[in-house]
Amino acid sequence: MEARKLFASFSLVVVALCTASGTTMKYYIDEEAPLGTFIGNLSLDLKINASEQQNTVFRFMHEEKSSLILMGEGDGCLTVGARMDRESLCHRSPLCLINFDVVVVSKEKFHLIHVEVQVRDTNDHAPRFPRNEIRLDIAEDVAVGTKFPLEAANDLDVGNNYVQEYHLHQNRHFSIETKRGEDGIAYPELVLVKDLDSDVEDTLKMTASDGGSPPKLGSVTVRVNVLDSNDNSPRFELTPPKVELHEDAPVGYLLLKLYASDPDHGANGEVRYGFMDGVADEIKDTFAIDFFTGAVTLKSPVDYETRKSYELSVQAYDLGVNSVPSTSKVTVEVVDVNDNAPEIHIKPMASASEGVAHITEAAAVESFVALISTTDRDSGTNGDMRVSLSGHEHFKLKQAYGDTFMIVTTAPLDREKIPEYNMTVVAEDLGSPPFITSRRYTIRVSDENDNAPLFSKPVYDISFMESKEPGSYIATLVARDLDDGANGQVTYKLIDNDIDGAPLSSYVAVHPISGSLYTVQSLDYEYLKQIEVGIEASDGGSTPRSSTAIVKVKVVDENDNAPFITHPVLINGSADVPLSHNAPAGYVAVTVSAHDLDDGVNGKLSFSLLEDNERTFFINKTTGVIALKHSLSHKQGDSLEIKVMVTDGGRTPFSCTATLRFVVTDEELFDEHLVVSFEMTDVDKSEEQKTNLEASFIIIILLGAGCAFLLVAIIAVAFSSRPGQRETYFRKNNGLESAFVRSPVSANSTDSSDSGSCHESGATVSEQLTSTRDDSSYEEQSQDSDSKLFRPLLKRTNLDSVAMWHDDRQSHHIRIPPIDQTSMKDSGKGDSDIPDSDSNISSDADQRISISGHRRAMNSVYSAPMVGMCQATKEISTTRSSNVASSGYKIAYRSSMCNYHSVNQRVSTWRNYDYIPSALPRAPEQFQDPACHRIGTLYHHNPYSYMGRAPQVTSEVTPSATAF
C-alpha cells in the first residue's frame, strides 16, 4: 500500500500542451510499479465533467499499449496494467516514453489527445565487467605517469543509475582515473605512480559504482605482469582524435590510416596494429584495422539513424620480447545524408481493414477522422517534410503535434450522397534531391438513421374483385429507405382501425418484410364496398423512423347474387293473379318487380317469358310489365299459366324464375273509378303544420257552404250540353279560373307547359283532347318538370269532365261510357272500328268513368283506400274527343273490383295497370283498342290555391301504374 502511494505521488506531475490543433498530456511512472498504480485522469486534467456529459467516451486509437496501461472508458483514468521493465522497453535509450493517442467522443465530436508516459529508471541493476579478470603486461622501464586504458563496466540502468566512477583498492604502484568518452560513458585508466621492479606480478582489484542511492557496485581483478625492458615502445603520430563517415559510405571505405613509430631495430622495431582487448563486438563487426598498415576501413554499412558515432580503441605494438603496446582512441562520427524517404503512418479512429477509416455521417464539422504520423529518419533539412491531403474538399489536415497531423472534416457529411471518399496523403522532405512518399487512403461514411422510409405516394387506389378466397393477394407496397444496414431495413404493419366494429386485421393482413397485402377473409361488395387500409413502414434503426400510407381497396362487384322477384309475392315460386274476362288486348295484367343485390351491369335485370303455352302474354324485358297480346277467349279456360324468368346482366348471368297463374274473373273492367296520382314535394315541417291548420279551416268553411256547392253542381249539369259555357261558368262561379284554364295542346308541342298556363294554374286538364300527331311526337319519359300534364288517355272517346274538391285533395274526374264491342263503325279512313267522337258526344252521365287528381300518401305504389273521395260537389259536363293514336299514360286508379292486393277484397284500393300498344297485333280486319305506352305529364295544382294562396312547389309526378 505504501509502495502504491509512493508511485502515485510520482505520477501526478502533468504537463498539458494545449494548441489549436490538439492536446498533449504528459505523465510519469517509475518502472516496476505495481499493477493498478494510478498514472493520471484525463477527464480531470482536461476538465471534462463526465457526469454532465454522460455520453463522453475515452478510447485508445490503437490497442498495442492497452496491455501496459489501462484506461477507464468513462473518465479516462490511466493505471498500470502490466509489469514495466524500462530496460526491456527502451534498452539503453536515455529517454523511455510510452506514447499513445486517445480519442474523446462527446456529442458527435472527436477530440484527439496525445499521451506520453515516461517510464523513469530505477537503480535495479549493478555494474558488471565483461570479464572477471583483466591481464596487463608492463615493461619495467615504463615511465611514471603512463596511463593504461582498461575495459569499462556495463550497467543496464541509464542516467545517474549508470556507472559513474571506478575505484582501485590501495596499491603503491598504480591508481585509477575515470574518463568519459564522446558518448558520455565513463571508462577506467590505470596510471603508473611508482617505478616497477622487474619480474614482479602485481594483483589489483578495481570496483565500478553507479550513481544510484544507494549506489550499486561491480568489481574486477586486474593482474599486472612486469616485463624486462624493451628499450622503446611504438608511439602514435598524426592520429586524428575524430573522423567523419557519411552513412552512405560503401563497405571497404577507408576511414583513416594509423601510424606509430618505434626507433628500435629488428623485431623490436616492427610495429603492428589492432583493437585493444575488450573492445565491443559491435565495433569489431563494423570496422576493420589492417594488421600491418594500420588502415581502418568500413566493414559493414553504418546508419546515422541507428547510431550516430563510434569510439574505436586501437593499439600499436612491436614484435620484440616484452613489447609494451601504445593505445589511442579514435571517434568516428556518422554524417547524415538524405537517404531515407518520408514514412507515413495512418491511424484511423476505427477500422476493420488496413487503409480504411470510418466516420459517421452525423459527425460535426472539424470532427476527427484519422491520425497521420510522418517520420523521416534523416536529420536536419533532409528530415524536414511537407505533408498534404488531396481527394475531396470535405476533409483537410490539421496539425496535432510535431510531425503528426489529423484528418478532420470541413463540411457536414451525407452518406446517401457520397458514401466513400478516396484520399491521398503526400509527404515530401526538403532534401536535395527530395524524396516523396504518397499513400492512398479510403474514408467510408457510416450510416446514421437520418431517413425515414418513404412511399411513392400517400394514397393508393386499388381495385379488388370480391368473393376471392382468403389469403388472396391484393397488392404490394414498397417504402424505400435511403439508409444502410439495419437503418434501411423496412418492416410493415397495419395501422389499427375498426370497420363496423371489427378490427381491420380481420379483413386484411400485410407481410412485415415484403409489404404485400393479403385478404384474411373474402370481401363481399354487397356488404363492404371499400376498405381504407393504413400501412406503417418502419426502419430498423435504434430510434426507428416511420411513415404511413393509405390504401383504398375498392371492392369490385362480381356477379355473385341471383336476382329475386319482389312482386308479385311468391309462395313456393308461384303466384296467383286475377284477370278480368273482358280484359282487352294490351291490357297490363301484372308488373313483375325484381331486385338484384349486385351493382351496375351485374344488377341490371331483364325479363322474359320462359313458358307461355297459350301465347297470350308478352313482357317488357326492361320494366317487367306483362300485358295481353289479345283479348281472352273462352277456350282458354279459367286460368292461364306462364313462367317468367328474370336474368341479370353479368358476364356469367344469374337468373330466377316464377310461375304466374292468371285466374280469369267475372269482374267487369270498364266501370272503374280512375284516379290520376300526384306527389308533392316535402316542405318545412313548421310550414306544413301551418298549412294543415289552414286546410282544416278551409274545410270547415267549405262544409258550411255545402249547399252553395250543391247548387253550383246542379247548374253545371244543366249547362253540360254546352261545353264552352260549362267551362266558363265553372271558372267564373268558383273563383278557380286560374286553376282550370283549358289550353289546347299544340300540334307542335309535346307538353302543355308550352301553352304558358303552367304559371297561372296549379292543375290543368287539357281542353283540346284531339291530336292528329303520331306516337313519336310525344315526349317520352318526361319527368323533368315539377308541373306537367298527363295527356288524355283514350282514342276517340267521349270524356265528361267533373271537377271536385274534397278534404285536402282536389280531383278532376272524367267519365267515359262503356265501349260497345259489337258496334264497330268505320271512321271513314279505315283505321278504326271505334265510333268517332262526333257520333258519341251525347252520353249518359252515369256511364262516365272518373279520373281524379289527388295528393298521394306515403309515396307508395298502393295508397290507402280513399272512401268517399269521389263525391262530387261541383261538376262541369264538358265533352271532348281524343284522337291520339297509340298514346299511353302511366297512372294509378282506384277500383272497386275484387283486388288481390287488398287485404279486404271488398274495399276499393289503388291498382296498378299499364296499357302498352307496342306489342299489340294489328289485324286489318279488327280494330285495336287504343293503348298507352308512354308517360305523359300533368300540371299539378295545390288545393290551397282555391283560397287565393300561391301554389306550393311540387315534385315530379311519380307514376305508380299504367292504365288504358
TrEMBL record:
Residues 21-129, 130-236, 237-344, 351-455, 456-565, 571-666 form the Cadherin domain. It is a single-pass type I membrane protein. CDD domains: Cadherin_repeat (cd11304). Its main location: membrane. Residues 743-761 have a biased composition (Low complexity). GO terms for molecular function: calcium ion binding. It is found in: Cell membrane. Pfam families: Cadherin, Cadherin_2. GO terms for cellular component: plasma membrane. SUPFAM superfamilies: Cadherin-like (SSF49313). GO terms for biological process: anatomical structure morphogenesis; homophilic cell adhesion via plasma membrane adhesion molecules. Keywords: Calcium, Cell adhesion, Cell membrane, Glycoprotein, Membrane, Repeat, Signal, Transmembrane, Transmembrane helix. The chain crosses the membrane at residues 695-719. Residues 743-789, 809-845 are annotated as: Disordered. Residues 1-22 form the signal peptide. It comes from the Eukaryota. This is Protocadherin-8-like.
